[in-house]
Amino acid sequence: MKTSMTMIAALGLTVLATGAIAGGDFEKYDTDGDGAISLSESKANPRLMGQFKDLDSNGDGLLSKSEFSGFNS
Description:
The chain is mainly alpha-helical. The chain contains four helices and two strands; from the N terminus they run αβααβα. GO terms for molecular function: calcium ion binding.
């Protein structure tokens, strides 16, 4: 039982840490601080630029934090 609880806690921390990293990356790419990542800003990461159109689910030419959360780095 103790091992199971330890494993569950470790998994929870891993999920939280992954979310924090992704959130930090959003701020890194949103260089103008407007709360969105433009195609121009995405050019800092070729993988992000390559996924940009697929991630931009509403087609507005910008990635919101929720759209960016689907980025597979």
